[in-house]
Design goal:
The complex is a heterodimer. By secondary structure, chain A is an all-beta fold. Chain A contains no helices and 13 strands. Chain A is globular, with a radius of gyration of 13 Å. The chains are: A mainly beta, B mainly beta.
């Protein structure tokens, strides 16, 4: 199985400041045939299911604010929240969907400083 | 709007069985590939299994920890997805989510239900 490792496990950021979450996969999730990275990011707020934010490593899901952006390729990826808002307090997960089974990172909890 | 509503969770003893249901609306269920994902305390999110649409053959795939014990099925006439769980173990405890699978990436979960809690304990 492909192991997904996120860092840090938690971070506290001031309102309006940038938050950066890293995700590393144990094998590449770049599929050479189509040059796409099979990497997604989810947001989970307390008491709610995960919500898809970004897929193909950098494509925002419809309706997701543009302060959320994804980057990276191969085995190293980043989710950036450019200006943290109060409603962004949540746990964020990365997921690879190239290998089977699909696997998730352990999550990163984002709080307000 | 896509809606997925799970039901059927509860408390069950180790070795017991439970059947979860997921009522779907807001999209053409019969064309959709569907998955179950669980959230286990202390272990995070874990894919359980997937079922293809009948037009794509209707095949199922399962994660290793549940293979041989869990069965995913669908009733397209009722727009409902099922998860039959047998020989339950303590480590099957968690919140079970029904999800749709994005058509262009068959292991990407784009819509999630609210989840149903399964507790396996004596």
């Amino acid at each position: 199985d492909i192991v997904m490792t996120q860092s840090p496990d938690s971070l506290a950021v001031s309102l309006g400041e940038r938050a950066t979450i890293n995700c590393k996969s144990s094998q590449t999730v770049l599929y050479s045939s189509n040059n796409r990275n099979y990497l997604a990011w989810f947001q989970q707020k307390p008491g709610q299911p995960p919500k898809l934010l970004i897929y193909w490593a950098s494509t925002r899901e419809s309706g997701v604010p543009d302060r959320f952006s994804g980057s990276g390729s191969g085995t190293d990826f980043t989710l950036t929240i450019s200006s943290l808002q109060a409603e962004d307090v949540a746990v964020y997960y990365c997921q690879q969907y190239l290998g089977s089974p699909p696997t998730f990172g352990q999550g990163t909890k984002v709080e307000i400083k | 709007e896509v809606q997925l509503v799970e039901s059927g969770g509860g408390l069950v003893k180790p070795g017991g069985s439970l059947r979860l249901s997921c009522a779907a609306s807001g999209f053409t269920f019969s064309n959709a590939w569907m998955s179950w994902v669980r959230q286990v305390p202390g272990k995070g999110l874990e894919w359980v299994g997937r079922i293809k649409s009948k037009t794509d053959g209707g095949a199922t795939d399962y994660a290793a920890p549940v293979k041989g014990r869990f069965t995913i099925s669908r009733d397209d006439s009722k727009n409902t997805l099922y998860l039959q769980m047998n020989s339950l173990k303590n480590e099957d405890t968690g919140v079970y989510y029904c999800t749709t699978v994005q058509p262009t990436a068959t292991q990407l979960f784009d819509h999630w239900g609210q989840g149903t809690l399964v507790t396996v304990s004596s």
